[in-house]
User: Fold these one by one.
Assistant:
Number 1:
Amino acid sequence: MRALASLTFIEAIARSGSIRRAAEVLAITPSALNRRLIAVEEELGVQIFERLPRGVRLNAAGEILIQHIRAQISDFDRVKSQIADLSGIRRGKVSIACSQALLPFFLPEQIARYRTDHPTVEFCVLPRDRSAAEAALSDFSADLALVFEPLDLYDFEPIITVSQSVRAVMSHNHPLAEKDVLRLRDCLQYPLALPTKSYGVRWLFDLAMAKLSQPASVVLESDSFEFLRMAISESRLITFQIEVGLPQRDVAGSPISRPIYTTDFTSGLLHLGQLRGRVLSVAAAKFATQLAQALAGRYTSG
């Protein structure tokens, strides 16, 4: 495993962009880490980092090597997980890149459920927008991605896709809270707080607005869904969110949501997937199965 340790050191330097910062993470001296790097470069016969005034950066050879390193580390983690399963003890770490909508309710519930049976498994949840989620799969920082309306799916191997309707979210005492179902034009009578254009909900909103001649009064934009929920709590502002990002039922005193006619606001797709061709660890594969079952039981397949 000594060779894998050296590869891990190279990966740490690549992530940190600095030998000094990587050495701090690895709890070794910068000079010792630099010697490890030089030994690898001498074995390869080429440099893999550009030395910069304030750090280092992978060159073309380094980019090729780092993909190999991350694949090796991922495969070794998978093997460790499989060996642990032989004794009936599921260990390992599961990393998920996900849209912000999954953070408040769905993923915490699913992780808690999984860890009830497998308390030794660790989790890392990485909030990522549509374009960054697939990148997290490609660089092996995430095992799974759970994203709404991604921009592209070139290296994405889908596990399950479910439909997600968009709901209007408002304070519990908002005038529209009395209605069971809303028209989009109802919402446009009030000021709006919207996610920025990098998010799928905003993309669907802009598509819906292209069909209307009625203007929208967008007074607040943010890339934080938590901030948007707080901003509407004591005002007449309205924001929008997909089903999975909302509680299953209204909570007294908290912001509430109301469905919008699908003729006004098209539904979108929530995708659960992994890097194409990658073999997941036992822990990640089992968690993916749990997520897929939960989504299939709650939402319509896309």
Note: The two ends are 44 Å apart (CA to CA).
Number 2:
Amino acid sequence: MTTMTMGKPLRVAMGETITDLAADNDRLVVLDGDTAVSTRVDIFQQAYPERFYQTGIAEMNMLGMAAGMATVGDLIPIVSTFSAFIASRAHDSIRVLIAQPKLNVKLMSGYAGLLAGMTGKTHLLFDDIPIMRAMANMVVVCPVDEVETRSALEAVIKYDGPVYFRLNRGNTPIIFGDDHKFELGKAVTVRDGSDVTVFATGTHTSRALEAAQKLAADGIDVHLVHVPTVKPLDVAAVVAAAQKTGLVVTTEEGTIIGGLGGAIAESLAEFAPMPVKRHGLQDVFGESGPDGDLLDKYGISPPHVADAIREFVATHR
């Protein structure tokens, strides 16, 4: 079994990367909703205080400011706060002020998913991917590690339009080499296999990879595909990977209702019908606790991912 090296938290990689990119791009500005130390846009603040705007706990107003900057200031606003405060609290401002006119605003969604550092259930949001991928004109990006985060940020800053960029809180394993190049709208094969195709996104792909390595010892050969761009979905790659084995499992650190699992199931229902299992968070709200305990409680730790895949394969063999 390959041991994955632990990398920096994605939020740190994000803070460092946008600061580096700002050196050659004076259009980049950052708006923060009183979470800079947590989301690590304080790195940008320290380097470019004149291009950093502290808006306080007023997320809808912050999105309005960003829309104005993108419209009349010819700037590229990077808006940063927790996932729950962007995708849920400020949803209407994003929809009306940014998505409808397709403005060039980048939404850095920190503390996404289950492992939000014991911040409480009010700060946890499991349906941010369904919310954002259902919004017209919105691109949804979920990198897996610090390497992909840095490459993906370069791509989304170059892209002219709104992007929802999903970031988690803790340290994450590195699964890609330094030569990895993120391509907007492209899925990536992480592991070749012949028995079952597994799709994952975000940092959860590293758990899916660990599960695949465990299953290899049991004689189950997993074909693992990482989907860093949930929207626009790489439908051609999804169909090709699914047809490789004829069995599909999706797994995610987010709700299976309308999330990655929903996106994959919708595409396969239309273009290549076959058995699909959606694995991830069910129809639940979260709670605070240590990371490992939460992953086990909600059934998405690597052993639980492996068990779900194993059971599905056994049922259809």
Note: The radius of gyration is 19 Å.
Number 3:
Amino acid sequence: MHSNLYIARQPILDKYDNIYAYELLYRDSNQSSNIKNDRHTTVTVLSNVLNKFGVKNLLGNNKAFIKADKKFLMHDVVFCIPKEHFIFALQANMKFTEALEQRIIQLSEMGYILAINDVVLTKEILDKFSNLLKYITYIKVDINTPTEDLEILEGIDLIVIFTKVETHEMYDKAKKFKGSYVHGYFFSKPKILEQEKFDPNSLKAINLCNYIMSDSSIDEIVEKFEENHAISLQLLKYVNSGSFHFRQNISSVRQILTLMGRTPLTQWLMLMVYSTNGITDEQETESPLMQLLKNRTNLMVKVSKQIEDSGVKDLSSKIYFVGVVSLLDTLFNVSMNSILEELNIDSEIKDAVTNGDGVLGEIFMFAKNLEKFDIKAVEDFCDKYNIETEELEKLTFEVIQSANEFENSRNA
């Protein structure tokens, strides 16, 4: 494979569950995770990332935390990293020297924002940074830190970001201990979760999606929509809004199917399900869960188009549906098994989501591994399906750029 760059962004949420910043992960495809060659220090790789893609294209209007070890901080190229966009997260296992401490102070005085990176908090760690705390703004604390050690946070003047937050219990724990921000794969409940069970309209929309993606005829699909008046009316309102430029108003689901096709209609339905305010609300803000949905499904569809002779009919359409089903447990705050029991979903889709089976499951697991930045698993997938690193780099960047463009358009 060519020497290219792997990139991933993981969101950091504020107390209102909006995206506050990202952690930016990056790696050269020809190096291991342990960087031993001075020519491939993390700062050099980051510099290559910025030169190749551009800060705005990667981050939109947000800042990003990047890990900063001793090699990173002492490399002169560090001064080329724009302080307006990046926060340097200092590694807790660094051995401090006088030169390193002076560099940290220098960076702070130049306007760079500093953090202590992802630690299981102890008094010893804070003592290690005691000479530098007044130059540091954030501390990233592992939520698995014992509760008694978290009490130390009350005595320090740092903004706390809790990491590895993946459950409601962890989220509640973070809120108790000065946790203004959280970083992890947990997403706060959308409004729909305030209900005691599946929202009936959402359940109907999901079943309609599954029906559209089957081999049902247009007549059968139209009949199903006509049984769901509220969804049909919302769909007609959406299609006749400024989002489309048809020559005449659309007055029936049959027209929509003919003009839009099955896949765009399915995508609209799933966006409606994931939207907390309704897809036609122009003031709607994009939730982190919605962004993950778009990133995951876009990447999976793009990758599916790189696979030849998969043996799966309508692979791209099916893989999109796998992507949206894969996050329904987070959306509804119930187990995936409960969701799959409630919905009449094809066994091929179920097996892909629950077990990672088949080509659909492999593409799904690939997307999840890239989100977690498990590069070994990503490379194994690319090797199996002959996807060049250069092509993967391009696809990943297109997905990030598309998400930024969507977010910017909604904030315009």
Note: The CA atoms of residues 218 and 254 lie 7 Å apart.
Number 4:
Amino acid sequence: MSKKANFQEFLDAGVHFGHLRRKWNPAMAPYIFDEQKGIHVIDLNKTIAHLEHACAAMKQIAKSGKKILFVATKKQAKSIIAEKVSEINMPFVTERWTGGMLTNFATTRKSIRKMASIDKMKTDGTWETLNKRERLFKTRQRDKMEKNFGSIADMTRQPAAIFIVDILKEHIALKEAKRLNIPTFAMVDTNSNPKLVDFPIPSNDDATKSISLIMDHVTSAIKEGLEERKNAKEKQASEKAEKPAEKTEVAKEEEAEKATKEN
């Protein structure tokens, strides 16, 4: 079973802490429970309800065998996303969002293929034919591409959905996803507009504990979806192996006709 949301756990992780009142986005009003010392407090009951709704949807995407792209380039979220998303084998961007990464996906794929071709050079002997300067250039080129595209190298097509931590910081990624009608999931703080996201999760998108807890629930749901997909495939394969090949009606008729002729 995927991780169950616990109110106290969310409280302890500070998921309810929003921004200063003067920084708020009025569209977040339905998710704000209170104001304390000039800081907005997010309604955790709504956070949990929205998180469960988002997790159920992401579980289905994973179960269908499609990819969800995770985007978080802010300092507090980078390592959390890289660590947790690697475990579920989903693509992620934590260094820098390259403009057009989705809307100009053909160019993105070209960079990924370029990385693969440099790797191939090292195994097929081509690398040895290059001079020192060429090798240095290729190595630098490869390192730069690895930084920007290494974590999405297995993404052969546009993702089925995108998950964002902080839609203000990742506004270009959000814009590209919306333009392509890619479903969006995001942690949305009190200074952001939740209406821009298909599955907003009202939460503190600045504290590492808060980001980590939300990600635990998200990755747990995705793991469950992947597990169900794997089990369904295995069941299908074993049923296929057990089931004797049934003869078609045509084959049965042909056999009967042949037997009659022989008699």
Note: The chain is about 55% helix and 15% strand.
